[in-house]
Amino acid sequence: MRTLTDDTRVRSGLRLGLPLAIAAAFAFGMSGAWARGLIDAGWTPGAAVTVRIWVAALVLLIPTVIALRGRWMLLRRNLGMIAAYGLLAVTATQLFYFQAVAVMDVGLALLIEYTAPIAVVLWLWMRRGEKPTRRSILGALIAFAGLVLMLDVLSGRSVDVGGILWAFGAMIGAAAYFVLSGRSDTGLPPIALAGSGLLVGAVGLTLAGAVGILPIAWNTDDVTYRFGTVPWFVPVLAIGIVATALAYVLGIASTRLLGSRLASFIALAEVVAALLFGWLLLGQLPNLLQGLGAVLVLAGVVVVKLGEPAASVSGDPVLDFDETP
Fold it and tell me: How far is CA 6 from CA 158, 159, 227, 239, in A?
């Protein structure tokens, strides 16, 4: 009877978690294209990401307070995790990604970032002793070969090393996002983790800008995209509300239902979304060789995920509907 109950909960979690994860991926996927328009209009990546995180933090402030229902001890108990989430999963991921898209195509930068599942596998190996299988190792090699093609190294063309390094930095932040979002032992409702983490990230970015560590420059000029010109606040609101506030809440909720492995696998849909929005808003499309590399990267990550043990065996949380302490 216990087994039947558990199976029912797993199926219920998949039915709810899958659409939430796909919606989160497409919401996240539009951020790079909107941000590139701001950057081309004279905004620094630091300014674009700071405004993005502040808008999202303010949007989620009241919902976060309501979700906590006066249980402020949850924030104190999880202060370290919230700080790590805000600085790594929010600030580092978004800032490094925006720095990357400032000098390279949106879709290519995100493809590098989304080798994050491989980093998750390595982390679980080092942290929990979960040695990757031969299939996972093969998938990592396939993804690496895809990266070589995608970055157009073999053609002899110059490669923006800085952009590649920024994208790999975003990959590390994305891996932290999946690992931290998958924790279901904190008692924090998904919207409270998202709201508090975004607030930490916004404050951190503002302080970095105030002391001169992070260059911040912005203007109120209209922003031009492939479909036409819009006021500056249109991309700001699109990035802040849809591609951040909504995306983080959906992402955390789906990761708690699906586990960090499966959620990071489904989140590859964000790459498709980024390529789609990069084409719709900016007219960016990879060439044939880069397209082949992109296919190899995605195939490699899929092989890595298929080669990993089931969540129930590895200890990765799958379902946890009781989020109260």
Answer: 54, 50, 49, 38
Region 196-215 average pLDDT: 88
Q: Which residue has the higher pLDDT, 99 or 223?
A: 223
Question: 29-41, pLDDT tens digit by residue?
Answer: 898 899 999 999 9
As a whole number of angstroms, the distance between CA 106 and CA 48 comes to 15
Quickly list DSSP for 59-117. Answer: HHHHHHHHHHTT-THHHHHTHHHHHHIIIIIIIIHHHHHHHHHTTS-HHHHHHHHTTHH
β-partners of residue 224 are: 229
- Exposed, middle or buried, 299 (CB in 10 Å: 0-12/13-18/19+)? middle
| Cβ-based burial of 7 (10 A; exposed 0-12, middle 13-18, buried ≥19) | exposed
As a whole number of angstroms, the distance between CA 325 and CA 322 comes to: 8
Question: Residue 130 — pLDDT band, cuts 50, 70, 90?
Answer: low
CA dist 132 to 123, 168, 296, 299, Å? Answer: 10, 21, 19, 17
Question: Is residue 311 predicted with pLDDT exceeding 50?
Answer: no
The amino acid sitting at 295 is: V
